[in-house]
Amino acid sequence: MPTPLPASVDEVLSLLQRGNYVSDRALATVLFLALKRGRPLFLEGEAGVGKTEIARVLAETLDRKLVRLQCYEGLDVSAAVYEWNYPRQMLEIRLAEAAGEHDKDRLAADVFQRRFLVERPLLQALAPDDRGPPVLLIDELDRTDEPFEAFLLELLSDYQVTVPELGTIKAPAPPIVVITSNRTREIHDALKRRCFYHWVGYPDAARERAILAAKAPGVGERLSAEVVAFVQRLRRRELYKLPGIAETLDWAEALTQLDKVALDAEAVDSTLGVLLKYQDDIARIQGSEAAKLLDEVKREMATVG
Predict the structure, then answer these.
(1) What is the pLDDT of residue 63?
(2) Are residues 211 and 249 in contact, defined by beta-carbon separation less than 8 angstroms?
(3) Are 194 and 245 contained in the same domain?
């Protein structure tokens, strides 16, 4: 028996909390509406803010299969939807010919059957499942080419795929679809219209501390507060790539591994490569700028304390 979908926004918040995902009410609301109306959820935001994690948490807490399509430039139907198992088809033809079968039409009909079809993620997501429709994650759609977006329109409109040799394969019940984009390019309006949209931004300090408490409980309270205060200030700087939540977690855990209970100048300078991913950004912050940020953090902690 499939796990029932949440019946309210508060139930969505509770469901996400069970999966250690700290959400704000705006995200929980649009997620509730997407689940209630059976519409895809389109999430945009910077890399590392937790977009992909939402699909994983949904699959885990609803006890559904997670089907992930990782997008990239040049992604096509054979990698995303289906392809024919040509080696098996050739073997079947050779065996049939050896058994005396030479009717080409019959041979073609025999080898273009469902058992020779290799199902890729989009087709897998349309298959029935005793636990209920799966969660389909179409991750980083902005990395694909525009023609692939056009192909998705049929899937997102009718939850079906057409295989010329077999006909139309339709899902008995629509999957739960989560689409993410880092906004390296704009996604076409025709696809967005089929979805409910939400921008996933960087969390405020309170929510980021709550995320650290949920995801990295081994990090001390003082270190956690100072790490979040430092990262929040760092995001106001002009950097090529601002640190996301994933980097905050990595940095806090790395500092804990170094037996740090609070930030100090040496620890910050020597571990900036965990937090920042571009040398130009590290060079801009390391040294005097890092010391300035750290001094602001210490003064804030003293005031709060």
Answers:
(1) 96
(2) yes
(3) no
Residue 135, CB half-sphere, CA atoms under 13 Å: how many?
A: 26
The pLDDT of 120-147, averaged and rounded, is 94
Q: What count of other Cβ atoms lies within 10 Å of the Cβ of residue 76?
A: 13
* Distance (Å, whole) CA 98 – CA 119: 29
Residue 28 half-sphere exposure, CB side, CA atoms within 13 Å? 17
What phi, psi does 5 have (nearest 5°)?
A: -75, 155
What was the pLDDT predicted at 108?
Answer: 62
Helix axes 221-234, 288-304, angle to 10 degrees: 130
Question: End-to-end alpha-carbon separation of the chain, Å?
Answer: 51
Query: Mind listing the pLDDT tens digit for each residue in 201-244?
Result: 999 999 999 999 999 999 999 999 999 999 999 999 999 999 99
187: left (phi over 0), alpha (psi -120 to 50) or beta: beta
Expressed as residue numbers, the domain containing 101 is 82-114
With beta carbons less than 8 A apart as the criterion, state whether 30 and 198 touch. Answer: yes
Helix, strand or coil, per DSSP, at residue 197: strand
> Tens digit of pLDDT for each residue in 276-290?
999 999 999 999 999
Domain presence at residue 2: no
Identify each DSSP E strand in 92-220 by its residue range: 117-119, 135-139, 160-163, 167-170, 176-181, 196-199
248 and 217 in a common domain:
yes
Query: CB of 244 within 8 A of CB of 202?
Result: yes
- Whether pTM > 0.70 for this model: the answer is yes
H or E stretch covering 195: none
Task: From 170, 199, 228, give the residue that closes a domain.
Answer: 199
Same structural domain, 33 and 157: yes
Contact 136, 176 (CB under 8 A): yes
Provide the number of structural domains found in the chain: 3
